[in-house]
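Write out the 3D structure for:
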Amino acid sequence: MLTEICKKSFIIGVTLCRYRVKSNFTHLRTICNLNMKLAPTVKLNNGYEMPVLGLGTYESKNNEGEIAVKHAIDVGYRHIDTAYFYQNEGEVGKAIREKIAEGVVKREDIFLVTKLWNIHHEPERVEGACRKQLANFGLDYIDLYLMHLPVGYKYVNEETLLPKDEADVLQLSDVDYLDTYKAMEKLVKLGLVRSIGVSNFNSEQLQRVLDNCEIKPVTNQVECSPALNQKKLTAFCKERGVTLTAYSPLGRPKPDEQKPEFVYSPKVKAIAEKYGKTAPQIVLKYLVAIGVIPIPKSSNTERISENFNIFDFELNSEEIEVLDSFHTGERLVPFNLIKGQNHKYYPFAIEF
């Protein structure tokens, strides 16, 4: 009898101890979260706040993508960018849900961006595509839903993301991106997404959307780096209350080739040494300084942390001019499979 009482007392004691440890850990984590330095935000034209730096997840698949997103959230990222085409929405959603369950963040702390893929441009496919993506994430809503391109692709099935014919030619569609956008507006009204926007649109295409929309796009996500600084498009967007988000902001560095020049230039390295930073950090700071929202992609945890650590210094006007000097207008992502077909909605046939 005495032995049984001792056993029960021991179990109760261990349980209480575990509870206290767990409670203290949760309390400590809450304090850490309050003290964590987050990226500044910009107010969108619909009142929502968007962090001025995000994590890109292109080609971050399987466990790699999940680890990257979890680490990013731990170090302070709240803006996570993905797309249906990246085929990693499940991993991104799992990482976000687990960080919510751990108490690191609440759902409303995360600004999740994904994109409508080009095979879903027919208006009747838009809602179904969005609901499928929400199911991929395991979340109730998407913060920002973008049209990935103004050009639609022929729909074959859900698995065929790049439909090609026997001659290996990409099969395009003639769906008007304006009809696609109007179908996206319904997603906001249904509460599936909070904000909508576009990606890879030129100034004329964006203006056409603005002239005909009921719900304004909040951003235009385009390739943007010192080599393609998009200053004209950024100014155009700003005048109309639209932000510009920058993908490939670091130009996909190739150490073996010492490219792009703006990452490996002695001039940029000298600026980096002055501030005790790296060249990529200087590049990201430059982009924020000229008014764009970079979303550098990385699966390397050290680099993810490094890319985020840019909010404790400011570049002066002369240093910004140094970065301006690398602008050539050359694109890393010219969408040649579309360009060669002379499609009427190909976005890069005009200056910006």
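The mean pLDDT is 91.
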